[in-house]
Write a structure and sequence with these properties.
Blueprint: E1 4-11, E2 15-21, E3 27-34, H1 37-45, E4 50-56, H2 61-68, E5 74-78, H3 92-104, E6 110-111, H4 119-148, H5 164-169, H6 174-205, H7 209-214, H8 222-232, H9 241-247, E7 252-255, E8 260-263, E9 266-269, E10 276-279, H10 285-300, H11 304-314, H12 319-340
Parallel strand pairs: 1-4, 4-5
Antiparallel strand pairs: 1-2, 2-3, 5-6, 7-10, 8-9
Helix pairs in contact: 4-6, 4-8, 6-8, 8-10, 9-12, 10-11, 10-12, 11-12
């Protein structure tokens, strides 16, 4: 019978602490190796049986996953927020032991690290999102600088090159004006770079069939469709729409306490619950931005989704809750279109369809 080994790895930039358990959970090996590809593969070659490995999500996770996946039975990347590895005493050796123990007990909440064919899409999407955030930060710094000197700067004219001299002239202090010039130089460097990355991302996205289907969903433009593919990678990760809602930060959570009260010597359930409702906080922020942005755009443009939004308002739904419902509906439709490889249909707006 083939033996199973449960391997926990606590990974750092220069070293990896390893704990190996056998099929009955007994520690059979502990060691520390260098964080180097050849050293890791040499260590794996020295082991026999079904090798199951777990390590925490971090800077090295993608590289390690791709490196070890072809050589072992299973590789899991641990979600540190949902695993009790951090509790109690901490050291590299203790963390490796806890990881291997969680793996042996099948108590690891893993993070998806599949679809190697989408690596280019993932990296280009990360570049685009990062540079877009950098552009936004510089633009915010510029407006904050003007406002700090009592200069109103509503709108986008403050960023336009042809009005730049006029805006700089409003700053009386030479040192502050020089600082603003540096921000403008930074903005001028980032904007062309963002357009270049955008062009590369769209060119890569056109190679993937789901991109054309997702674009037909109202509110999902070329960039949103591209980032959707890069972030989700495959719709089959999500068995139901509610799993996608939770992953996207659109899942409703309720918090209740003190449900019972004493009445005439007996405990009875309180009729008025102090229930607090909110969205789940542990989620993918990029995906949430996509669906919220798509809902905002679809609610303001003529079409079936706009009509769906207006119907919600007519029923007395608040605008914020109506947009949330629309965002959840767009996420559900995305799952249908992508899984079934079909074009968008207004019938998907019916409750029984999505």
């Amino acid at each position: 019978m083939t033996s199973v080994k449960y391997i926990g790895m606590d990974v750092h930039s220069e070293s990896i602490s390893i704990c190996v358990r056998n099929s009955v959970g007994k520690i059979v090996m502990e060691c520390v190796i260098e964080t180097k590809g050849s050293t890791i593969l040499q260590f794996l070659d020295g082991l026999r049986g079904d090798l199951r490995i777990v390590f925490e999500e971090g800077t090295w996770a993608t590289w390690l996953y791709d490196l070890m996946k072809p050589h072992v039975t299973e590789v899991l990347v641990c979600n540190t927020r949902k695993n009790a590895v951090r509790n109690g005493s901490k050291s590299d050796r203790i963390d490796a032991r806890k990881l291997s123990e969680q793996l042996y007990m099948n108590n690891v909440k893993s993070i998806y690290h599949g679809e190697r064919g989408l690596r280019m899409m993932k990296e280009l999407a990360r570049s685009y999102l990062t540079i877009t955030k950098d552009v936004t930060r510089v633009m915010n710094r510029l407006k904050a600088l003007y406002r700090s000197w009592g200069i109103p700067c509503a709108g986008n004219e403050v960023y336009a090159p042809r009005y730049r001299a006029e805006w700089l002239a409003k700053i009386s202090e030479a040192s502050v004006r020089r600082r603003a010039e540096h921000y403008y130089q930074q903005l001028d460097g980032l904007r062309p770079l963002r357009q270049e990355v955008r062009k590369d991302l769209l060119a890569e996205a056109k190679k993937h069939k789901p991109w054309k289907l997702l674009r037909h969903i109202p509110g999902i433009g070329p960039i949103r469709a591209s980032v959707l593919i890069a972030v989700m990678q495959t719709p089959h990760r999500f068995r139901t729409k509610r799993q996608l809602w939770n992953y996207s930060g659109l899942g409703l959570e309720t918090y209740d306490s003190a449900e019972y009260r004493a009445f005439q010597g007996q405990l009875e359930r309180s009729k008025k619950h102090a229930t607090v409702r909110g969205l789940n906080k542990d989620h993918n922020h990029d995906l949430k931005d996509i669906f919220k942005g798509a809902a905002m755009r679809a609610s303001n443009a003529a079409g079936p989704l706009h009509d769906f939004y207006e119907n919600l308002l007519a029923k007395g739904r608040k605008p914020t809750m109506a947009r949330l419902t629309l965002a959840r509906k767009i996420a559900a439709i995305t799952l249908i279109v992508w899984k079934k490889e079909v074009r968008f249909d207004a019938n998907y707006l019916k409750p029984q369809a999505a």
